[in-house]
Amino acid sequence: MTIVLAAYLQRSFYYRTILTVSVLASFFGGVICAAALNLSMILLGRVIQGAGTGMALPLSS
After folding, report:
1. C-alpha distances in angstroms, 51 versus 3, 4, 24, 60?
2. DSSP class of residue 13?
């Protein structure tokens, strides 16, 4: 789903902006996972990581 979203965002925003936001989302998702106190926080962190990585993947190739 985020791969399709990345294609749509490419028409609306600059490439560098989308890539920066997606890398930061992946990074902060990892930070949330590292600081997680329970399963809910780990799941939230993994969802944020997945969204960031899913948007960065089609942009980096």
Report:
1. 9, 11, 11, 15
2. S
